[in-house]
From TrEMBL:
CC terms in the record's Gene Ontology section: plasma membrane
Origin superkingdom: Archaea
Protein name, per record: Amino acid permease
Lineage, top ranks: Archaea, Methanobacteriati, Methanobacteriota, Stenosarchaea group, Halobacteria
Gene source species: Halobellus ruber
Any one GO molecular function term: transmembrane transporter activity
Membrane protein topology class: Multi-pass membrane protein
């Protein structure tokens, strides 16, 4: 027998650790060298700029999560605000993007794994597949168990990173910060666009809102608390990497003279020699696996929520009676994850998905504006985002500005996701729903009409 409700088993700490776990990954262990190549030591400012652009979306999602503490996150808010077409695009796009990011994490850990394990490059894919399968099994087995393991892992990783940066403070070479901005302001903005995905996990915890205890209190604290902690941690770690590592290694230490894929290990080698490389490499493998776990946990809730709204086949909305998890949605997400790892050049395609993430972070601000202006009776958030509507306007425009710095291929990738999702809605979801969303209420009100197609913000 299967039900439709999930257990509220996650307290504040595991919820915050899920959010942080979705961020502690490529943003720390892979992207700093790529950002350094684009901005020089000013890559530190790029991380701060990216955080400022993400913050409005984090505030907006924190508010909407307390009004709609259900599974679905990005999909749910955009669907209820802008209607099922935009909801389908957001849901499928965010699902693909997050699974790409998780598969990128598992494949990307190979560069660190090869630093201490006697494996061939080809064997790394098999290791990633095994770890991916374990993550899927863990998520089928229970959200509480997954959250508890996530909390332990993230705590240990944060302690390790703090120790790394504190020790680096006594060893780093301050001369490596001069000149600070080698590529000017444009270089900082371009680097910010590429490291933006480092913060993308901050709001993914909203997709598991239905499994959070006391969501009106815990969700805003988890989202905003993890945002603050990770911004400080990113700046500290990237600063340590810049101060410890040889600039030539950061810029050209990767395959074929590309940016280094193991910048944390580059700095650790200077700090603690071979032991430092071994230690950081093991931490990286654990952290990237944790990131994949958080990604599967949150991304699997998108097909669950869409199924409940008849925009996805009904089996994906069922809850396993024994484990109280969306088993079918997790298995579908896991199948996509393993397929990407096995057959797709994930590292390249992950760049394409990142542009869509920036776009979604911009649109989520518009969704909050739609709810506020429509004055939906059932929209009663326990937390209200400050600075409305100026903060949301800044987040929307700043996100679009960063998007222009992503390059042609990532933008085309985002366009492809939009077109594909729209086709799925046209051929499957359109005939099954007549909702208009909060934006429809606004339009009808201006025409002096009554809108009967607004989906309620609470699930009956």
């Amino acid at each position: 027998m299967v039900g439709s409700d999930l257990d509220r088993s996650l307290g504040l700490y595991p919820t915050m650790m899920i959010s942080m776990g979705a961020m502690i990954g490529s943003g720390i262990f892979v992207l700093p060298a790529l950002g350094y190549k684009k901005a020089g030591p000013a890559v530190i400012l790029a991380y701060v700029l990216a955080a400022l652009v993400v913050l409005p979306a984090a505030l907006s999602k924190a508010e909407m999560a307390t009004a709609m503490p259900e599974s679905g996150g990005t999909y749910l808010y955009i669907d209820r605000a802008l209607g099922p077409l935009f909801g389908t695009i957001a849901g499928i796009g965010a699902w693909f993007s997050l699974v790409f990011k998780s598969s990128f994490a598992l494949v990307g850990l190979g560069a660190y794994l090869l630093l201490f394990a006697p494996l061939s490059q080809g064997a790394v894919v098999y290791v990633a597949l095994v770890l991916g399968a374990l993550v899927v099994v863990l998520n089928v087995s229970g959200t509480e168990l997954s959250g508890q393991i996530q909390a332990v892992i993230v705590t240990l990783v944060v302690i390790s990173l703090a120790a790394y940066t504190l020790n680096a403070g006594f060893t780093l070479d301050t001369a490596r910060f001069s000149p600070f901005s080698t590529e000017g302001n444009i270089g900082v903005v371009t680097a910010a666009a590429f490291v933006f995905v480092s913060y993308a996990g901050v709001t993914k915890v909203a997709s598991v809102a239905e499994e959070v205890k006391d969501p009106g209190r815990n969700l805003p604290r988890a989202i905003l608390g993890s945002m603050v902690v990770m911004t400080v941690l990113y700046v500290a770690v990237v600063g340590a990497i810049v101060g410890l590592s040889d600039p030539d290694v950061l810029k050209g230490g990767g395959p074929g003279g590309s940016a280094s894929l193991t910048p944390m290990a580059d700095g650790a080698g200077v700090l603690l020699g071979g032991f430092g490389v071994l230690f950081i490499s093991i931490v990286a493998v654990i952290a990237l696996t944790s990131m994949a776990n958080a990604g599967i946990l949150s991304s699997s809730r998108f097909p669950l929520a869409m199924s409940r709204d008849d925009l996805f086949p009904a089996p994906f909305g069922r809850i396993d009676a024994r484990f109280k998890t969306p088993r079918n949605a997790v298995l579908l997400t896991g199948a996509l994850l393993l397929t990407l790892i096995a057959f797709v050049p994930v590292i390249e395609l992950a760049k394409l998905a990142s542009a869509f993430q920036i776009l979604v972070f911009s649109v989520i601000n518009a969704a909050l504006v739609a709810f506020r202006e429509a004055d939906v009776p059932s929209y009663t958030p326990e937390f209200e985002a400050p600075g409305y509507p100026y903060v949301q306007a800044f987040g929307f425009l700043a996100g679009l500005g960063l998007l222009t710095q992503m390059g042609t291929l990532p933008i085309l990738g985002a366009a492809g996701i939009i077109v594909g999702s729209a086709l799925i809605y046209a051929f499957y979801g359109r005939a099954r729903t007549d909702r208009t969303g909060a934006i429809g209420t606004i339009i009808h009100a201006r025409r002096g009409e009554t809108d009967e197609g607004l989906a309620p913000t609470d699930r009956e």
